[in-house]
Amino acid sequence: MIKYVQEQQLFHLMTPNTSYVMALADGEWLGHLYYGPKLDDTTGMENAFRLNEFPFSPKVNERDKVRFMQGFPFEYSFYGTGDYRESCLGAENAHGQRGVELTYRSHSVIAGKVVPEGLPHTRGCEDCCDTLDLLMADDVLGLDVHLLYTVYKDLDVIVKSVRVVNRGEGPCTLTRVLSGQLNADPDSAEVLTLHGSWGRERTITRQRLETGSVSAESLRGVSSAEDSPFLAVLSEGTTQTTGDVWGMSLIYSGNFLAKAQIDQIGQLRCVIGIHPEYFAWPLAPGESFQSPEAALVYSDEGLGKMTRTYHDLYRNHLIEKRWLTQDRPVLVNNWEATMMNFNTDVLIGFARSAKEAGIDMLVMDDGWFGHRDDDTSSLGDWFVDEHKLEGGLKRLVDEVNAMGLKFGLWVEPEMVCEDSELFRAHPDW
To answer: Phi first, then psi: what are they for 144, rounded to 5°?
Structure first.
């Protein structure tokens, strides 16, 4: 449920057991107030902004606007106009101007879900969720920024994403567009991240955060085994069954940043999204950019409840439905058994042994194409080497299928060898 309280200029997002509350300061600055157990009453909550530590409202005292900016708990932060903490949005116009200042313009509530075009995303229907579209804008840069919040009726999840539109007359380059931000003020906090390497992915790391920052990130082009696009903030002493947990999970597998930071007065800001390093997205007038989604979960029953909530979300609203209840096949791959030294008869014999062992699927690995006898040739020549596979791919697949096995094929389309017909056909490469 999404509720707007006009007299408070307050937004109250409610899941079955949690509340997420934002409000406007001075009628234009969108601030975060609360994310935790469900509230029955939000009366007076708009007065909870910590303006006593940064007391000068910009409308009252423009001279001290920077003091306001560097302490206000912005719902979606921006770079270059006084907030020196980690920010979500950065941009530069053709004149080199880089300061962003987002103020509130309007909002609407949509039955169902806004689908982020071209990106993996959670599903939603008009009966199972609603979406809040909060329009923020920067008139100098000519940017409209849509903050999108999807609230599920049967899950304690808030799914966030951001769409930026260039409504100006000139080009603009986005230098950072993170997907979501979470502000919290726990008495003491630990940050949980998932680190690792090949063969030991997602090793749980818990760090006490008192000052400075903690991050999980990747600049490898993929999320990788080293770091997962996830971060959680835990109250002190949190276990699997007790304690407060705030989780952020990015639905994206490219470069990412997940960062938790304590500011000078002890406020905690967490951000997650596409890594801003090396990020530069040009927007011509009228063009838009859509961020990946970030799923936020709050649990007052420890890590276990947070985990189960994410499982429910991804199982019911992310995994492709046709695979949801299907058992995954047990497969065997011929690589370690044969390397590139095989032919049709060898693989058919391999498949018979696999069938006897109760295996469901044979995957033919590297060496079936071009004249691929070692790893120096033929990547890019994706046609069957009929010297190895007499009768072509069809004969092999038919015989394997006739045994009751599925057939899979290894391919590495992102690479090309200099010793290949494809490479020789492209001297410009």
So the answer is: -100, 130
The answer to whether 73 and 87 have CB atoms below 8 angstroms apart is: no
Distance CA 189, CA 180 (A): 20
Cα–Cα nearest to 23, from 35, 13, 33, 37: 33
Stretch (H or E) spanning 316 = helix 302-317
Q: Which of 19, 168, 160 is nearest to 94 (CA)?
A: 168
Sole residue written with tokens 């979606």: 76
CA separation for the pair 402, 398 (Å, rounded): 6
Q: Where are the beta strands (DSSP E) in 220-367?
A: 230-235, 245-251, 256-262, 268-274, 281-283, 288-290, 293-299, 331-333, 361-364
Q: What is the pLDDT of residues 165-201, one digit of tens each?
A: 999 999 999 999 999 999 986 666 899 999 989 889 8
**3-state SS class at 222:** coil
Three-class SS of residue 123?
coil
Angle at 410 between CA 218 and CA 224, to 5 degrees: 10
CB 21 within 8 A of CB 34: yes
Q: Is the separation of the CB atoms in 112 and 125 below 8 Å? A: yes
With tokens 């609360």, the residue in question is: 34
Q: Which of 185, 181, 128, 158 is nearest to 20 (CA)?
A: 158
Strand partners, 350: none
Residue pair 206/191 in contact by the 8 Å Cβ criterion: yes
* Phi, then psi, of 136 in degrees rounded to 5: -110, 160
**215-269 pLDDT tens trace:** 999 999 999 889 999 999 999 899 999 999 999 999 999 999 999 999 888 889 9
Please provide the size of the chain in residues: 429
How many C-alpha atoms does 81 have within 13 Å on its Cβ side?
24
What is the distance between the alpha carbons of residues 303 and 309, in angstroms, rounded to a whole number?
A: 10
Helix (H) or strand (E) holding 69, with range, is helix 65-69
Place of tokens 């500011």: 263
Nearest C-alpha neighbor of 32 from the set 135, 181, 232:
181
Backbone angles phi, psi at 243, to 5 degrees: 105, 160
